[in-house]
Amino acid sequence: MKTIDDLGDLRGRRVLVRSDLNVPLDGTKITDDGRVRASVPTIRRLADAGAKVLVMAHLGRPKGTPDPGLSLKPVAERLAELLGSPVLFANDTVDEEAQHIASALREGEVAVLENVRFNPAETSKDDAERGAFADQLAALADVFVSDGFGVVHRKQASVYDIADRLPAAVGGLVQAEIEVLERLTSSPERPYVVVLGGSKVSDKLGVIDSLIETADSLLIGGGMVFTFLAAQGHEVGSSLLEEDQLDVVRGYIEQAAQKGVDLVLPTDIVVAPEFAADSPPTTVAADAMPADQMGLDIGPDSAARFADVIRSAHTVFWNGPMGVFEMDAFAAGTKAVAQALTELSAREDGGLSVVGGGDSAAAVRQLGFADDQLGHISTGGGASLEYLEGKTLPGLAILEDA
Ligand code: ADP
Ligand code: MG
């Protein structure tokens, strides 16, 4: 795969960079700027090399039409603050204004194009439609740099099709992410522990299949727990549940036992009558959940056990909060896991901790931990899971061929 070094002298050349600037917003206020900060080094490096830098990115899921609430403008402003230099903003991706900005850029200048997903072609399943949009994007620049790790698993115009239309290279962020993930897939230092949680249960169950082959212990928390408990025949009340995955999960439980993988499920659960911050929490045994309540966090015994397993590991990959960490009453499990990870990272014999997933990274920061207390915070949850599953990531595959 070509890197920025392989692109030669970039002075005066227009470089189109796909970054991942998909940050959580509260109105126009960015509540976690981690992805913007992670995008800065590549953008700065290109600007310092004298390139004319055009950044393209998406924000949220705007359904293929302009949505003022999902404008990248506040993100471009934050980027300017972090870069310490002005950033131009194009109110569209490929219209005349964007073309004008692209052609008027000076060496070392940076411009951000509006949310690429305002154009329905960006995420179209139709190759020709995506291709036509990619042609328009390609016309804005001389070179493409793929640096949005959070989207490399997407076959989208600004990630995939564009790489066929310009000389292309991988950016420093994607390179760094892959280097870390490679350490997890090829001979991780053992014990290798994987912690899974969160709410995108159906998306995440698939990864367990391949993790059973590589991990020594698998700790299950978050919304995923209840499909496991239900598969074992327990009551789960009104908790998140994937009914149609019960057989799959039973298969995993069996497979883990066969392979000698330590599958650790919580033994206690924090439940409440409603999904609400002020709903009164109670801790119950995992096999005795009341039918009229829902599980919103792993209980304290489970949290202590998870923390022990993490502390005695050498390599840990964590994706998905253990509970509804956004509400104080249900944040303790996630906090215990994060705390144990910081202890692993601080150890002198150098344990490796990797956190993947937008909400997991946000949880770590919201609960008061600093990025450098953890080994590596990945900017891509879905992408890192697909990588660990051994799937082909279209945005990387297309660069291999370039
Ligand atoms: P990530 O972005 O890290 O991959 P997900 O998007 O899968 O994680 O899930 C994050 C969300 O999961 C959080 O908003 C959290 O509140 C929610 N969550 C965790 N545990 C539960 C649970 N028991 N019930 C409902 N939601 C949960
Ligand atoms: Mg998420």
Summed up:
The chain is an alpha/beta fold. Helix content is 37%, strand content 17%. The chain has helices at 34-48, 73-83, 96-104, 127-138, 172-185, 201-214, 225-231, 246-259, 300-311, 332-346, 358-366, 381-388, 394-401, and strands spanning 14-18, 25-26, 29-30, 52-56, 87-90, 110-113, 143-146, 168-170, 192-196, 217-220, 262-264, 268-272, 282-285, 294-298, 315-319, 352-356, 376-377.
Strand content: 15-25%
Bound molecules: adenosine-5'-diphosphate, magnesium ion
Oligomer: single chain
| Biggest beta sheet summary | 6 strands, parallel
Strand order of the largest sheet: 5-6-4-1-7-8
Protein architecture, described:
The protein has helices at 34-48, 73-83, 96-104, 127-138, 172-185, 201-214, 225-231, 246-259, 300-311, 332-346, 358-366, 381-388, 394-401; strands spanning 14-18, 25-26, 29-30, 52-56, 87-90, 110-113, 143-146, 168-170, 192-196, 217-220, 262-264, 268-272, 282-285, 294-298, 315-319, 352-356, 376-377. It has 402 residues and is α/β, with parallel strands linked by helices. The mean pLDDT is 95. Helix 1 (34-48) packs across helix 2 (73-83). Adenosine-5'-diphosphate (ADP) binds at residues 197-200, 222-223, 240, 295-296, 319-321, 323-326, 357-360, 381.
